[in-house]
TrEMBL record:
GO terms for molecular function: ATP binding; ATP hydrolysis activity; transmembrane transporter activity. Pfam families: ABC_tran (PF00005). This is Putative ABC transport system ATP-binding protein. It comes from Nonomuraea endophytica. Residues 9-246 form the ABC transporter domain. The lineage of its organism: Bacteria, Bacillati, Actinomycetota, Actinomycetes, Streptosporangiales. It comes from the Bacteria. GO terms for cellular component: membrane protein complex; plasma membrane. Keywords: ATP-binding, Nucleotide-binding, Transport.
Length: 252
């Protein structure tokens, strides 16, 4: 059971260095932030600023070099790979730019696959509610190649939500979609937060996409340099400008 006021994800002094010696790359520097349960947060910053690394550390996909990550109150620091894999299955959902659906399986089989791999019986009522809410109920018998990109991404969102995760991580989920389909996917993520109380963390390059969130974090050269509340596309675009390298300032 999660404790009231415990953030869904808590980063403390998070740092990540890839490689070592002369080829070492510092991707994250001393990032501390709590992602409130039931909130929608966008992470922005220029290419190479550390967005994907932050998401992957927070999701237990990449080991931080320093600091700690807590998901739903559970400390990931020191977990072995097998324990991390089980944590990911139980507590987090993922939505990627490339949908990552298995082509041989129907949409419904794709949605239920992670649960089945975890040895759990899918909750049919919950899956029915998800496919209804995301508007793909009539398509669940089709295979991915019989669906549009937007429909495939809806399937991926249902798959991410099927196990009732603490948090859904979405890395550029609209990157392969046309503008209208992208907007539908973002509205859907917004609805998932508002109607289902889900926590969503979204990595994006697009100020219009980030404006769907409650808060926007700005990264620059691996540092958290700004946090914007009540974002609009214009305010987010201005935040990107402010947080560009050369104009770095500490987070308030
Ligand atoms: N596996 C890796 N090995 C070495 N360096 C890496 C690795 N992954 C990322 N990096 C480096 O870490 C830094 C941050 O990368 P990251 O992918 O997190 O940035 P990003 O903001 O998501 O970039 P983009 O917007 O281009 O996807 C970059 O300098 C990148 O080259």
């Amino acid at each position: 059971m999660s404790i009231t006021n415990e953030p869904a994800v808590r980063l403390d002094g998070l740092g990540k260095i890839y490689g070592s010696g002369a080829s070492a790359v510092t991707a994250l520097r001393d990032i501390s932030y709590g992602f409130a349960a039931g909130s929608f947060t966008a992470v922005m910053g220029q290419s190479g600023s550390g967005k994907t690394t932050l998401l992957q550390c927070a999701a237990g996909l990449v080991h931080p070099t320093s600091g700690s990550v807590r998901v739903g109150g559970a400390d990931l620091t020191g977990l072995k790979e097998r324990e991390l894999a089980s944590m990911r299955r139980e507590r987090v959902g993922f939505v990627f730019q490339s949908f990552n659906l298995l082509p041989a399986l129907t949409a419904l089989e794709n949605i239920e696959l992670p649960l089945r791999l975890a040895g759990r019986r899918p909750d049919r009522d919950w899956v029915r509610e998800l496919v209804g809410r995301t508007g793909i109920a009539q398509h669940v018998g089709r295979r991915p190649h019989e669906l549009s990109g937007g429909q495939q991404q809806r399937v991926a969102i249902c798959r991410a939500l099927a196990a009732g995760p603490e948090v859904v991580f979405a890395d550029e989920p609209t990157g392969n979609l046309d503008t209208a389909s992208g907007q539908e996917i973002l509205s859907m993520l917004r609805q998932v937060v508002d109607a289902l109380g889900q926590t969503v963390i979204l990595v994006t390059h697009d100020p219009a996409a980030a404006a769907y969130a409650d808060r926007v974090l700005f990264l620059s050269d691996g540092r958290l340099v700004d946090v914007l509340t009540e974002p609009t596309p214009e305010r987010v675009a201005a935040g990107v400008q402010r947080s560009s390298p050369g104009r770095t300032r500490p987070a308030s």
